[in-house]
Amino acid sequence: MPGAVWAIDGTFLDRRVGRRGRRALVVVELQSRKLLKLKSVRGECIDELRRCLQELVLQHGAPLVLKLDNGSAFVSVALAEWCATHGITLLHSPVRRPSYNGTCEVSGRWGKHRAYCAARARGAEQLEQQDLDHAVTFRGVMNRISDDVRARFQAVVAEQLAVVRSEQGLADGQLLGDDAKRSLARVAVRRALELCHILTIEGREFHQCLSASAA
User: Fold this and answer.
1) pLDDT (mean) for 199-205
2) What is the distance between the terminal CA atoms of the chain, rounded to a whole angstrom?
C-alpha cells in the first residue's frame, strides 16, 4: 500500500518565487522519504493548504494519514473537514516538538537545495515554481488506497481512541480541549497504523510494513 502516510510542513525559501513571497509547503511520502511537492504559497493559510493537497490527491489519491504540526492552518476546522471528506486521518505533532515532523524538515532542506540548483542551471537568480517542481523526488505510480482498506483503518482508529480514553480514565462524552483531543488521537492513530501493519513510527524512523512505495 504505497503512500499510506504523508507529512506536510511549511518552510521559508531564501529567495522569492516569481512575484510571490518566500513561503512554501513541503509534502513528503514518509516510508520512502521522497518529496511529493514543494509548492510556493502566499502564506500558510487554509486556502493555499487545501489547494496544495487537492493537487496531490488528484495525482496520487488520498493518503490514509496526514502528519503535520500545530500551525494555525494545520489545526483549523476547515482542514479537518476537508480531510474528513477525503477520508484522511490527521496525526498532529506534540505541541512545541518540531522534531516530531523532522523528516519533513530534512526533506524540505534538500528540496530547496535542488530548487536553487535548478534555477542556477537555467541561468536565473530568481526562483520560479518550475524550479520547485524540479525538487520533487517521488517517481512512479502510487496505487490508490481502496475504500475497504480506508474504512477498516478508520474503524481501528475509532476503536483505539476509545481504548486510549479508557486508559486515561476519561468518561464517555467528557469534554476535552483541542490540544488534549489531538494528543489522544495521536496515540490512537499510531497504534492503528501498527495494528493494520501499515507503518511503525519510531522517532524519525518510519518502517513500512506492507509493500514499499514507488520511488
Assistant:
1) 53
2) 13
Query: For residue 170, what pLDDT is reported?
Result: 87
pTM of the entire predicted model: 0.88
Mean pLDDT of the residues in the chain? 88
CA distances from 90 to 7, 64, 157 (A): 10, 9, 11
Q: Which amino acid is at 42?
A: R
Of 107, 121, 104, 91, give the one whose Cα is nearest residue 185: 91
Residue 2 phi, psi (nearest 5): -65, 145
Domains identified in the chain, total number: 1
| Measured distance CA(215)–CA(210) in Å, rounded | 15
State which residues form the domain around 125.
5-208
Q: What is the CATH number of the domain that holds 168?
A: 3.30.420.10
